[in-house]
Amino acid sequence: SDTVERHEFGAEVGRLLDLVVHALYSDREIFLRELVANAADAMDRRRFEALTDQASALPPDAKVRIVPDKTARTLTLSDAGIGMTKAELAQNLGTIARSGTRAFSQSLGDAKAEDRPSLIGQFGVGFYSAFMVADRVTVTSRRAGSDEAWTWASDGQGAYTLEPATRAEPGTDIVLHLKEDAGEYLEGYRLDHVVRKWADHITVPIALVEDGKEETANQGTALWRKSKSEITPEQYTEFYRHVGMNFDEPWATLHWRAEGALEFSALLFVPGMKPFQAVENERASKVRLHVRRMFITDEAELLPPWLRFVQGVVDTEDLPLNVSREMLQATPVLTKIRRAVTGRVLTELTNRAKDAEGYTPFWENFGPVLKEGIYEDHERRGEIAPLLRFHSSAQDGWTSLPDYVSRMKDGQEAIYYLVADDADALKTSPQLEGFRARGIEVLLLSDHVDAFWPEALGRFDDKPLRSITQGSIDLAKFAGEADAGEAPASVDALVAALKTALAADVSEVRATDRLVESAVVLSASSGGPDLQMQRLLRRAGR
Ligand code: ADP
Asked: How many C-beta atoms lie closer than 10 Å to residue 481's C-beta?
């Protein structure tokens, strides 16, 4: 008809569909997890929007409905969620960023087969998994607050259509026309099994509708509300995988209930692996805020950015269910919860850091993020500093500031460090010669944040941190195998000549006892930024 608009998918969507359908074929039941999760999210979003916009109010019996129809060979998922406008249908289901496709296909290639299903969640391409079981998908949606409804339809072969539709209430119906070999997803027991396996933690009710009869398929148990003794390790792991789209075991599980002045339950995890989507891209904590079990938002920033790798749920009694966005920003309750939760995570890290071997994987995954806390959080700086780990000129493996201090030489006043882009270049830097020869340990720093935090920390255990590229460091007082001693007179003439020749480029030329084998080394003036900082400033065009 005239009203049907046909649109080509972007080239990237076609490629992505192909990837999803083929790479994940052996786990294709997860299409149901993805579609149910989208439906539940849409209902959560509608409930949240209704706090400030009455037009969005969710009907009291709102559910996700799963309806198999054996005669028509369709499986329909209906939700009473926020819905999508015509533009949102085209945007959300018809486009994807080129960079996203590349990163996704790269990760698919790198991932072990059993890890692949979690990738589609991490990359936000879950909807396309519908085409693993369906050769045609139609999505009819009405945005809450609007009277218009639209139907999006596609066979997943390069194009989709959009046409006007009708829907009595806001929400979305997704109709899957099942493939010949996907008949199992018309069977109630099979659907029930998959929902229980993947969606039991979803707190929105999910009903399976067979022969007109509706049965609740998920338990919606708020695991974090139960006491520890009632929860098995498997249940913790399963929940961890569910909240964070993870597939590994958590490195740390923190589950506690705060009672008294402040009441909340928290169930938090430190992942055992670095997520595929690098934590560098996302700055804000995504820990979920619930009020009396009900999901409110994952944008409450319950933890500071330097603990953004922590995942999980905080559920409080101390906020009203109809808490608004504005209230979330201003309420002292959240300020107190943030403080308590941050403190608890730091305590856990401090305890776990006592076991050097067990701490290493955590440090290698998330250490650079934790370091940001040194310059971002004045108050917590003192607690964070002992948790940091470093490579050093004197040790293999990782060392800490307290360990470094315990090895300092008699008369050594400062903690020395050297920053560069590349860990291997550090080990052979001529800047280290004089220190090595005298057995003075230097911390070797090569994370991008290392240019910033040492200066912010300033001191540890009352010892100043000093970049060895900055100013002159008097090493003469430490005896070593290669004592430079007094600069002979002939060097004075050389120094004077160099000063004249380089007058436009350097502020000072002097003899140094920092070198053993090399003839010259660049150094930063003692008041200004150190060499690595100067490199960064130059790169930034300053
Ligand atoms: P993700 O959910 O990870 O963002 P998807 O491919 O599963 O990726 O979905 C893309 C987007 O489409 C979602 O972010 C959401 O905005 C929208 N969407 C999907 N399903 C629904 C639904 N049932 N109701 C409303 N919006 C939806």
From this structure: 9
